[in-house]
Design goal:
Blueprint (H helix, E strand, L loop, with lengths): L2 E4 L9 H10 L4 E7 L11 H8 L5 E7 L3 H11 L3 E5 L6 H10 L3 E6 L17 E5 L14 H15 L4 E5 L7 H7 L3 E4 L1 H4 L4 H19 L1
Parallel strand pairs: 1-8, 2-3, 3-4, 4-5, 5-6, 6-7, 7-8
């Protein structure tokens, strides 16, 4: 099954509880939360207090994406704040194997993220550890960017590797995801699709989630 994961980065922060309720009414059960530190990427977003606060208003799965220079220092803090999943960038984690285990030992799923210019092969020795791999289909730091087509090739390669090696990691994509490319992304082998602007900037966020989820469901059936 492929899931649409609304990204709260594109939501109205003054009305987060209402925004979450909207997408959940459209069937969303996985929410993506982007954490940026102004160093690893040129933007600042949410911290642990915000995650802890919104955790009180929903039972949806929290997928926290750390775009920060020191994930070791903060990964456990975000798990304690309510994250069910935490992903860290290959480019930022100096001791990636240890970082992934740190997250898992804290009770959350651990993911590794690849920037657009980072090849899949660098993950060869941690794919048996990671619970999921997040492919960035835009350069991280800002929402509303255009989808990078080569991301589909990276998804296909990851899907091929997990089949060849019998591994169970999920594949996630983030950036430029919308109604026009959901089908191609899922057919390439993706499991979780992060969608921000295409959901929260639409006239009806619930319907946007519902429509993209239906497209993803059909693509899964076609892929099988």
């Amino acid at each position: 099954m492929a899931l649409i994961a609304p990204s709260l980065l594109a939501a109205d922060f003054a009305r987060l509880a209402d925004e979450i309720a909207k997408v959940e009414s459209g069937g969303a059960t996985l929410l993506h939360l982007d954490v940026m530190d102004g160093h690893f990427v040129p933007n600042l977003t949410m911290g642990p207090p915000l995650v802890k606060s919104v955790r009180k208003v929903t039972k949806s799965i929290f997928d926290v994406h750390l775009m920060i220079t020191d994930p070791d220092a903060y990964a456990a803090v975000f798990v304690d704040a309510g994250a069910d999943m935490v992903s860290v960038h290959y480019e930022a984690a100096r001791h990636l194997d240890r970082t992934l285990h740190l997250i898992q030992d804290r009770g959350a799923k651990a993911g590794v993220v690849l920037n657009p210019a980072t090849p899949v092969w660098v993950l060869e020795d941690v794919l048996d550890v990671a619970d999921y791999v997040l492919v960035m289909s835009v350069n991280p730091g800002f929402g509303g960017q255009k989808f990078i087509p080569n991301s589909l090739n990276k998804i296909r390669r990851l899907d091929s590797i997990r089949r060849e090696r019998g591994l169970g990691f999920a594949i996630e994509i983030d950036g430029g995801v919308g109604p026009e490319n959901v089908e191609a992304i899922v057919q390439a082998g993706c499991d979780w699709l992060v969608a921000g602007s295409s959901v929260f900037n639409s006239a009806d966020p619930a319907q946007a989630v519902r429509s993209m989820q239906q497209t993803a469901d059909s693509a899964v059936l076609a892929r099988a």
